[in-house]
Amino acid sequence: MNNPPHHLHSRRDFLATAAGGFGGMALSSLMASDMQAVVSHAPKANAVIQIFCSGGLSHVDTWDYKPELERRAGTPFDPDGKLQFFASKPGNCQPSFWKFRQHGQSGLWLSDLLPRLATCIDDIAFVYSMQSKTALHGPGNFMMNTGQTMPGFPSMGAWVTYGLGSSSENLPGFVVLPDVRGLPPGGIINWGAGFLPAKHQATTLDTSNAGQPIADLFPPKAFRAETKASDKPGLNFLQKLNQLHRKPRAGNTELDARIKAYEMAARLQLSAPEVSDLRGETEATKRLYDIENEAAGPFGRQCLLARRMVERGVRFVQIYCGAENTTAEKIRPNWDSHEDLPRDHGYWGEILDTGAAALLKDLKSRGLLDQTLVICTTEFGRQPAAQGKQAKGRDHNGGAFTAWMAGGGVKGGVGYGASDELGFKAADNIVHSYELHATALHLLGLDHEKLTWYHNGLEQRLTGFEGYGVIHKLLA
Prior knowledge:
It is built from eleven helices and 16 strands. It is of the alpha/beta class and 476 residues long. The chain has an eight-stranded mixed sheet, with helices on both faces. A two-stranded antiparallel ribbon has the order 2-3. The longest helix is centred in the last third of the chain and has 25 residues, at 341-365. Mean pLDDT is 87; it is low at 1-36.
């Protein structure tokens, strides 16, 4: 596939043609509605909700039970002193700060940090043998989102909308809900379109601003003289201006994306604000997501909004549980627990546990879980050895971590792969982002080897060229 030529256009030229102004620009289709699906087999899922725990969630304190770590508690992890972790030399072996128990008919282990998710365990498939190519936050986020440690490559959500298009007339195909505390490591590049047409990048929803959930969705109050009904003829007129402006600039994907984004904004103004309006939800549903809770409420609200979006045809929703990193004397704004893991993971564990469990239960009760793939990931794990002056933290560990999937054709109540006896390195059926992405694409009806885009002399794809494939043992 050849990329279309890129045409430059000046701001003055643009304004001269589209003199009607930016706020009401519209075209006849949404960002990806002109995309023909390349489904290769019958899909099990028609939407994805991905939860991304930024900062490096500790697998040995949550999902991956290590009794040997308990037996070696307090003994030197590296007696010979040969190892150097990301930020320090390893301390003594440190077992989980929370007790592990078996749950459900499957008997899978989960720590007491996550009591609500424990009640969903028979719907979840765990991958215990995840491994990253980096132990740095930014590159690690890129790796799990795009399959590359460098910025500038398309995210999984962009690849999905490129392959399947949008199934909604009024909403974007790919929506991101960042943590209310800020953007994740690497920022908005995590959900960019890279070398794919720019229309496949995500639309970011600011859940902390109900009046303006999408930047510049509504014009300033001084420019809101006309009613919504009277806007429609004006939008039709502006559509014609947009078409005239675009005609001599065919192939400019950035211009196409910008114009289509404004057209989408117009539709959102007219019909989609109800997506973020939770007044129609029952009190029981709001309590399930605990949206009034000061700590867990914002993430719970995002999970509820994700459910509402997939109900309305949004193809891919990504929710961030954790923001950009800071060195902290208090609770960190993400899972990067170098100094005090009981403090940080104790706080974030309640947030994740409340929202993720509510999402799974809500989807299941509405008959949506079977057709919605839920994925929970982080960029890497944490070391089984203690870190810090008080020996209460853990350093970065790209060698082993856990991800999980549920719904959408996934076999629940199973574990795949394994890390070693201490949780230091993935040991059995090692999995990288490529296999996880290939499995998600497969469940959506896409062949990851055929979903390509020609760029820099290669047919690029999300899952790389090293022979990685679908994890068939996770499929129902």
